[in-house]
Design a protein that fits this description.
Number of helices: 7
Strand content: 25-35%
Shape: elongated
Distance between the termini: 82 Å
Number of strands: 21
Low-confidence stretches: 1-9, 45-51, 389-406, 468-485, 522-537
Mean pLDDT: 81
Oligomer: single chain
């Protein structure tokens, strides 16, 4: 019994010890839990009062300044195929061999025409031409003969007129010679008188009375002397000299009259020749004009006949068919053929941007058909005058990020050559364009908002730390926040190219790829509490 009691007492004591231990463990666990909860609460309180800052990093990027516009894909080669010759207008279309979208080669038959009426007209015109040519040839022959006669007649008349001039000239010469010879003739006559007087005196001296012979000799000498005196008297008579002078005057007048007659004859002959030449020219002109008109008509009809089968002058894709079978061709393009493999972009640039557009400028081209793929091109032509309008690109956000000036409103046509082919492009597609004005690669940039201005108006960056790494690797937001709380350094910088969201930072000591900087989006109260030299105030 006693042993059992002792055993019972020991059991009771052990149970009490276990309860105590359990109580202690529970109390300890509660204490630990309470401590942990308190610590968490304290941490949350600390986090709630920690200042919030916004940071970023200096990075290397490619900045582009461009003009954004929209354009239309067009073919460089557009051929409007027309039926050759005016004669084909009004012809019936007997067959159309192509449709829009067909690819044709040079020489392929596009359509056919009914040219039976043209053939009938051609036969009639040629018959009429033959008759007209015969009549015109006769008229021309007559006119030529009249002209030749006029020329020949002039030669004959001028020969006769010249003979009259020559005779008149000879008469003038003779009259002048006779007048000039008068003084000599007078001297000769005086000498003759003196000689006759001498002979008469000798004959008179030889007269013997009753000598009949000597008397006859003296009488003969007397007669010679009287004749010599009469001759001298006649020559020295003023009237005789005047007669000679009048003869010279008359001869000269006759000469002048002959010369005038020659000129009159020449003028009259020239008029006759001119009249005949005009008639000949009229005949020739009428013939040439009629022949030219007829030949043009024949050529037109022949072209119409030859155009019975209209063939493609080029290879390409049919983009328009303007005739129908059994329809009437009324002129203009029958078919339009374009080269779909040789494309360019036509765009209209706003007048405020056109001065920045130059031939050779690089252009980036996007279309809905090519998705995100950028095609390259270059400006090959700029219109000197405005004449069309452009619309705003739909992706205005993309324009802003790339630093693109959007071209819109009434503008100037610009042609852009595509430097690469893309089988997804089609004529008349809309293209989004970026005309590159300036581009800088691998330069240090910061967000535009990261640029501050100090009290002196200088541009600065608020540098939080050294670069995160040589390669500009990003750091965690928690690490950036911790860095920022330690303060920042205000570094004076100079900026370069601006392109939408980013600004170029020119080489500056302490500013490198990966340098952490503050942004103005930081909590103003937190920033106010920060000392630029470091730490919270």
């Amino acid at each position: 019994m006693g042993k059992n009691k002792n055993n019972q007492s020991n059991d009771t004591s052990g149970k009490k010890k276990k309860k105590i231990i359990i109580i202690i463990v529970v109390i300890a666990a509660a204490a630990i839990a309470a401590f942990a909860a308190f610590h968490i609460h304290q941490k949350k309180m600390a986090d709630s009062i920690m200042p919030t800052v916004a940071t970023d990093q200096v990075s290397r990027k490619t900045l582009t300044s461009s003009i954004a516009a929209t354009g239309t894909i067009k073919s460089k080669t557009v051929t409007d195929v027309t039926a050759a010759g005016v004669g084909e207008t009004g012809l019936k279309v007997t067959g159309v061999n192509v449709k829009v979208g067909d690819v044709v080669s040079e020489g392929d038959v596009l359509c056919t025409f009914d040219v039976s009426s043209a053939k009938e007209q051609l036969a009639d015109v040629k018959d009429a031409q033959a008759k007209a040519e015969a009549a015109e040839a006769q008229s021309k022959k007559s006119a030529q003969r009249a002209y030749d006669n006029a020329v020949s007649s002039k030669d004959t008349q001028l020969e006769a007129a010249q003979a009259e001039i020559d005779a008149a000239s000879a008469n003038v010469t003779q009259a002048k010679n006779e007048l000039a010879a008068l003084p000599g003739e007078i001297e000769d006559a005086r000498a003759a008188v003196e000689e006759a007087q001498r002979l008469y005196a000798e004959a008179q001296a030889k007269v013997v009375d009753a000598d009949e012979a000597s008397q006859k000799a003296a009488d003969a000498a007397k007669a010679d002397l009287d004749a010599a005196k009469d001759g001298l008297k006649e020559l020295t008579d003023p009237k005789y000299e005047q007669t000679l002078k009048d003869a010279v005057t008359s001869a000269e007048a006759a000469y002048r009259q002959a010369c005038a007659a020659y000129q009159t004859t020449s003028d009259s002959a020239d008029e006759a020749i001119a009249s005949a030449k005009d008639a000949l020219d009229t005949a020739n002109l009428g013939s040439d004009s009629s022949d030219s008109t007829t030949k043009a008509q024949i050529r037109s009809l022949q072209e119409a006949i030859d155009g019975e089968s209209l063939k493609s002058p080029v290879s390409g894709t049919v983009t328009a068919v303007n005739v129908k079978e059994d329809g009437i061709y009324t002129g203009g393009a029958v078919v339009t053929i374009q080269d779909t493999n040789d494309l360019y972009v036509e765009a209209s640039i706003k007048e405020s941007d056109i001065a920045d557009v130059k031939e050779g400028m690089e252009v980036l081209v996007k279309t809905d058909a090519t998705g995100d793929e950028e095609l390259t091109g270059k400006v090959t032509g700029v219109a000197p005058t405005a004449g069309s309008s452009v619309s705003l690109p739909t992706d205005s956000a993309e324009s802003m990020m790339s630093g693109a000036a959007t071209s819109s409103g009434s503008g100037y046509l610009v042609e852009i050559d595509l430097l690469e082919k893309n089988e997804r492009l089609r004529i008349d597609m809309t293209a989004k364009l970026s005309l590159i004005k300036e581009q800088k690669k691998n330069i240090l940039v910061v967000p535009y908002d990261a640029i501050f201005t100090d009290e002196n108006g200088n541009k600065t960056l608020h540098v939080v730390s050294e670069p995160a790494g040589e390669d500009g690797l990003s750091v965690s937001e928690e690490a950036l926040a911790t860095e920022a709380l330690d303060g920042y350094e205000e570094v004076r910088v100079e900026t370069g190219m601006e392109s939408g969201y980013y600004v170029e930072i020119l080489p500056t000591p302490g500013i490198e790829n990966g340098t952490v900087i503050l942004l103005p989006e930081a909590d103003e109260n937190s920033l106010d509490e920060m000392d630029p030299a470091g730490g919270l105030g």
